[in-house]
Specification:
- This protein folds into 2 domains: about 1-50; about 50-135, no CATH class.
- The strands form 2 sheets. Strands 3, 4, 5, 6 and 7 form a 5-stranded mixed β-sheet that branches. The chain has a two-stranded antiparallel ribbon with strand order 1-2.
- It has helices at about 5-50, 110-120, 125; strands at about 50-55, 60, 65-75, 85-90, 95, 105, 130-135.
- Strand 1 (about 50-55) and strand 2 form a beta hairpin.
- The protein is α+β, with helices and mostly antiparallel strands and about 140 residues long.
- It binds zinc ion (ZN).
- Zinc ion binds near residues 54, 57, 59, 98 and 102.
Length: about 140
């Protein structure tokens, strides 16, 4: 006849056996997650170091030195239940701004496609020096 002590001993053994099987996965997952985090950090840093020349002051700006100007539309209230709100415009309708004040409309940039590709990878707050908001109309 089993006593309570023997039952709990058996449960502990099962737990240990199962943990033994699963622990290597957890160790591997933890290690891979660290690698992923490291790769993302390096990727972000690479994007932050991409440059564009300011046509006004001539400075070669890293993305991390520019301001991103998020353009938004004001959406008026509609119906009796919905309030007004601001809707962010697509990246191509936004601007990059040099410290000298010159703004660059992404839509008109020669490197527009590359720019949209690069800046779409991470939140703008992480890539640029600052994010300003500007109403379109
Ligand atoms: Zn400039």
């Amino acid at each position: 006849m089993e006593t309570n002590i023997e039952i709990s001993q058996e449960l502990k053994t099962t737990l240990e056996k199962w943990k033994e099987k699963l622990d290597p996965f957890d160790e591997k997952i933890e290690s891979l997650e660290k690698d992923i985090a490291e790769q993302k950090k390096e990727k972000l840093e690479t994007i932050r170091n991409f440059t564009i020349n300011c046509l006004r002051c001539g400075k070669i700006n890293k993305f991390s030195e520019l301001a991103f100007v998020q353009v938004y539309d004001y959406v008026a209230p509609s119906g009796c239940m919905d309030g007004d709100y601001n809707k962010d415009c697509k990246d191509e309708l936004c601007h990059l701004k040099c410290f000298c004040g010159a703004g660059y409309y992404i839509y008109n940039m020669a490197e527009k496609k590359a720019m949209l590709y690069a800046i779409g990878q991470f939140p703008k707050e992480l890539v640029f020096n600052s994010v300003e908001r500007k109403r379109r109309y």
